[in-house]
Amino acid sequence: MKKFSLAVYLLLTLVMVSPCSTFAQKMKVLSGNFEFLKGQQELNVVFDYTPMTFYNEKMSENDYLEKRNKDISANKGTNEAENWKNDWAYSKSTAFPNKFFASMNKNCAIVTGSKESAPYTLVVQTTWIYPGWFAGVMKQHAKVTTLLKFIETANPANVLLEINSEKAPGDFDFVGIPNTNDRIAEGYAKTAKSLAKLITKKIK
């Protein structure tokens, strides 16, 4: 009886978690082509959070920060809310870019990072984020949507390629990530991995 109960529990857990693991990211080329990247050794990358919104209601960043502050303050206190706010600022400036760079450099021969001398720059414009949630055996991964805009470094008005990356999942397949910002960071890593593989395929 105990073995049967355990089997049922594990089955229900798998059913609850699996929808989060089967979500597919979509990448769509909106304009341009990849020809300019052939033979390149470095790619400059900058992050633009200006158009960023949250949740299905397209909440602004300020509204999102207020919501998080209220939720965390009510459950864990104002000190923890302030810690989270600082972590959010750090994530935007450091953790998100670093995750993106590491994933790109692992999956593509072009060295990616803060390379201001590189002839081309990738502007990663974050347009939408779903932060996800974690509750032990139940979870919902984060989702990150970005507009990936390739421009000439010396002539930013010259846009050579635009790709829409929609709802890149931010989580691990079977182990959830409790920290909200860490989940979102994994969404940037997934975005970079998919982009790196697409670039590698197109510039063979």
Task: Characterise this structure.
This protein has 204 residues and is of the alpha/beta class. The chain has four helices and nine strands, in the order αβββααββββββα. The strands form two sheets. Strands 1, 2, 3, 4, 5, 8 and 9 form a seven-stranded mixed sheet that branches. Strands 6-7 form a two-stranded antiparallel ribbon. A hairpin with a 2-residue loop joins strand 6 and strand 7 (138-140).
Helical percent range?
40-55%
Integer-rounded radius of gyration: 19 Å
Unreliably modeled segments: 1-23
Instruction: Report the total helices.
Output: 4
Range of strand content:
25-35%
Helix and strand succession? HEEEHHEEEEEEH
Structural class: alpha/beta
Q: What average pLDDT do the residues reach?
A: 88
- What coarse outline follows from CA principal-axis ratios? elongated
Largest sheet: 7 strands, mixed
Count of distinct strands:
9
Distance between the termini: 58 Å
Give the SSE layout.
Elements: H1 2-21, E1 26-32, E2 42-48, E3 53-54, H2 61-76, H3 78-107, E4 111-113, E5 120-130, E6 133-135, E7 138-140, E8 142-152, E9 159-170, H4 180-202
Parallel strand pairs: 2-4, 2-5, 3-5
Antiparallel strand pairs: 1-9, 5-8, 6-7, 8-9
Helix pairs in contact: 2-3, 3-4
